[in-house]
Amino acid sequence: MSVPWTIKYRPKNKSEYVNNFEALRKLERWLLSHKKVPRSKKAAFLYGPPGVGKTISVEVLAKEHDFDLIEMNASDWRNRASLEKLAEISSNQSTLYGIRNRILLLDELEGLSSRGDRGSIRAIVNLIKKTSHFLIFVANNAWDPKFSSFRTYCLLIRFKPIPTQSVIRHLRRICTEEEINVEDEVLHSIATLSKGDLRSAVTDLQTITQGQQYVTGDDVKWLTPRDRQKAIFDALRLIFTSKNSFEARRAIDMVDVNHEMLFEWIYENLPRQISNKKALYNGMEALARADIFMNRIKRFQNWSLLKYYLDLITIGVAMANDKRYQKWIPFKFPEIIKIMAKTFRQRKLQMKVGSLLREKCHTSSIQVVREYLPYLRIIFEHDPEMARQISIDFNLDKETIDFLSKN
Amino acid sequence: MSIGIWAEKYRPKTLDEIVNQREIVDRLRGFVRAKTMPHCLFAGPPGIGKTTAALCLSRDLFGEHFSASFSELNASDERGINVVREKVKTFARIRALGDVSFKILVLDEADNMTSDAQQALRRTMEKYTSTCRFILSCNYSSRIIEPIQSRCAPFRFTPLATADISERLYYVAGKEGVALTEDGVNAIVDQSKGDLRKAYNTLQAAAAISKNVNEASIYTVIGKVHPKDIQEIIIQTFQGRFIEARDLLRKMLIEHGVASSDIIKQIHSEVFKLNIPESMKVTLVDMVGETDFRISQGANDEIQFSALLARFALVAEKLRNMDRI
Predict the structure, then answer these.
(1) What is the reported pLDDT for A242?
(2) Where along chain A do its domains lie?
(3) Which terminal CB of chain B, N or C, has fewer other CB atoms within 10 Å?
(4) Chain B residues within 8 A of A262 when measuring between CB atoms
(5) Which residues of B touch A288 (CB under 8 A)?
(6) Looking at the domain that runs over A20-158, which CATH code has it been given?
(7) Is B43 exposed, middle or buried (0-12, 13-18, 19+ CB in 10 A)?
(8) Are B152 and B136 within 8 A, CB to CB?
(9) Residue B79: exposed, middle, or buried by beta-carbon count in 10 A (0-12, 13-18, 19+)?
């Protein structure tokens, strides 16, 4: 398998479109009724949970009615300059093929941060006012306060979660096409767990059935119903299985944990998922390069470098592996979080020793921990007199002395 | 002053007591004679006398007014540039006593400051330059922004010579009533690699175990301070057990708080002990150097070490396929 099923089985026309027909019709009416006459609502705003066909509905209709479709993702238009450029394109009527209707699709609108991208919001309002084309926004939640300044200009179209039965039907159709035999029970579990997110259901199906002709109930047991965990698992699965940079990069938008937490998940699981040494090195090196970018971002507060960091942790890891991995290995929670929790008291005591000694030793707490602590332990273990002298010098309390004495 | 910790007890008090860094000490003596000095940047690895030189210079300059005219801040303990700025303000506002017209502020581990903080520091340095001179101390001058570097007189400190370290060790052993054998000294010198603080600490810990310090007792200390973990990590890696190696690495870095600079040094010397073709060692050392550089630039040590280990594992596999190990 080289193409992700989410792409391979993407609906190509209206008849393949799954569910949400009402929303599809509403969007179609808006596109057609305003083809020539001036429109009352300048833009359409498609909203609803992930994986229910918002972006696809636009693609399908654009094809059907011969519109030009210009698509932009959050990552493409995070800055004002690119939006203004878009406004420029959009005020220019003619296309390469002469006069033709054009749709500007701004996807993943949540990517805008309400604080950082104030200029972008203004640019969007500006774009709505200027454009002579069909402007369509896509986001999970239209009622987010950051959209309030332009929501009123938009025709709101709601997309609902796909009913379980429709998900199952779609999955079964894929199984038939792929000539694989999957128990009903499995399809049912996948569909239920997807909670109406058809894209994630298709991803799950592909991951579970990888390299297998028959899939039984046992294969689906690792699917956990916890939402957050599931989102991370979906993202990791994309990262470790994708052969396609577009798909891998999508992983970023699937999780609601911060980027560094996602990094920890990837870093923890990389050597568990990839055993081929060449691929392991490629993946680790991609993470190490990403880490260098993160360091630059933080040192120079240059957040425009973030895109390279995100590319490296997703696409960089996805492309590391040239062989498709065959068997399913469950994802593991980042060990580092557990270690940090487990060693909390110990590290706190270490830093206490550091803060007690640092001034008189003319150094920092962390240097005390590194340069003095190991030797102090030996002294406190073997020479009570020397230990007593040091305890007096530095006013060490009982807790600290006990900590230094026990090994 | 601490009399319990030897590294402190035997820290020189005046420039004349400093046994190494001769050119640097000469120039600092010049500052004392002229009763003036520029801002300074002291760069070099730990334990070779940067802080000591700053302390001695200040004591020689200020004499009895030392404690009122000298202050020390550690960039890695002070949260944020605002704290630093406030402290500098309070310190520099009151004029210096005595016949020296300025005070000295030592900013330790200045290379741990973000470049934004350094930019702010640069303005502070300019503002108070008539009443306060700064001595910035750092391991890597490359991490100090250009505008600050150009405002400071640079001093590059070098690791202590073997003879200097062994002379100091014999001196301290004599004072503390410790019988120190020649092979014991050699073991300490070998281990401390020019870092006098580490040499003192090793000697003191060995003396805590027994007043007769010899090669064996030094290796007991070294063994406790640097467990055989690095060797084990490399063995696991070479046998293709990357996950186990990474677990050990984490243990060292997080639970034992071992400095990444120590780990990199040890990996470097382990490479030459490996039973692999000589030409391969150069390749490995090259990678170790790259990792060292990345970490020195501020990258995360665990991630960078992991990438290095992954590379080792790849090399090991290639060698195994060629039946070379």
Answers:
(1) 82
(2) 20-158, 244-334, 343-405
(3) N
(4) none
(5) 294, 299, 303-304, 306-307
(6) 3.40.50.300
(7) buried
(8) yes
(9) exposed
